[in-house]
Amino acid sequence: MAGYISDDTRKVTTHRLVEMKQRGEKISMLTSYDYTMAQIVDGAGIDIILVGDSASNVMAGNVTTLPITLDQMIYHGKSVVRGVKRAMVVVDMPFGSYQGNEYEGLASAIRIMKETHADALKMEGGEEIIGTVKRIISAGIPVMGHLGLMPQSINKYGTYTVRAKDETEAQKLIQDAHLLEEAGCFGIVLEKIPADLATRVASELTIPVIGIGAGGGVDGQVLVAQDMLGMNNGFRPRFLRRYADLHTVITDAVSRYVSDIKNLDFPNDKEQY
Ligand code: KIV
Questions:
Q1: 58 alpha carbon to ligand 1 midpoint, in Å?
Q2: Could you tell me if 89 and 213 lie in one domain?
Q3: What is the extent of the structural domain holding 270?
Q4: Residue 233's pLDDT is what?
Q5: Whose alpha carbon is nearest atom 5 of ligand 1?
Q6: Which residue among 127, 180, 192, 193 is least crowded, i.e. fewest CB within 10 A of its CB?
Q7: Does residue 67 sit in the same domain as residue 115?
Q8: Ligand 1 contacts CB of residue 42 (under 6 A)
Q9: pLDDT tens digit string along 85-143?
């Protein structure tokens, strides 16, 4: 089996991520929303597991990430943490749980940390949320920023197309990235922006920059597990590499199961008491 499994079983920390960036070791990050997937993904050697608010789409079938609630994110976060030994677990703060004011944001952050036992949180936005980011970090909670395409703002953009292609938006993104680093974020996700811009941000910052649809010049990569495993046939953006075709594998297994039941083949004599 081709693969990369580190023999370093120490827990991944914010400090170790910065060391990885410094020595040029790329950081691997993948989503998980449940215990079973988290156990597999952690065992395969991933550095960071993101309990993404993409659970809203992938787990619940919503069109956007907006409907998922704080309680639902806490449920997913708890389930993932129980399955993980080595990876850092980062939980997304859901839409509406931190945009109001610093104290609301802090209260949501504390609930997630207390109830899930996750290692860190991720929040979408730059200058607009910097006060809240600082307040949460000052409570001792590690925060990862998220810039570029921010799915919680989809109703403002109206489209999931590449962000920061024009100079004004690119300049704002660079400024926001610096603000997040200065506020004490331990890392930043850059989603769906031109590769040159992402490379520039990663080279200007000392904290790790993880990309999704942001090219290879950043410090690490993140994908949604169900997308890279080929479970969602309808979603094939250019940045997605599919490492398996689980849609076909599962469809085949389930249809053989159905057929074995119908044909009185399952269970057989050895599969009963
Ligand atoms: O929610 C999520 O899955 C994310 C990744 C796409 C970075 O934020």
A1: 11
A2: yes
A3: 246-273
A4: 87
A5: 52
A6: 127
A7: yes
A8: no
A9: 999 999 999 999 999 999 999 999 999 999 999 999 999 999 999 999 999 999 999 99
Identify whether residues 180 and 272 lie together within a single domain. Answer: no
Does 7 reside within a domain?
A: no
Whose alpha carbon is nearest atom 4 of ligand 1? Answer: 52
Residues 18 and 99 in one domain: yes
The residue whose CA has the least distance to atom 1 of ligand 1 is 52
Same structural domain for residues 182 and 263?
A: no
Express each pLDDT in 137-196 by its tens digit.
999 999 999 999 999 999 999 999 999 999 999 999 999 999 999 999 999 999 999 999
Same domain, 39 and 147: yes
Using a 6 Å cutoff on CB, does residue 222 contact ligand 1?
Answer: yes
State the sign of the Cα–Cα–Cα–Cα dihedral 195, 207, 110, 45: positive
Q: Which amino acid is at 25?
A: E
- Give the number of domains in the chain: 2
In a domain, 4, yes or no: no
- β partners of residue 194: none
| CA dist., res. 87 & res. 73, Å (int) | 18
**202 in any annotated domain:** yes
Do 130 and 261 sit in the same domain of this protein? no
Annotated active-site residue 271? The verdict is no
Q: Are 20 and 39 in contact (CB under 8 A)?
A: no
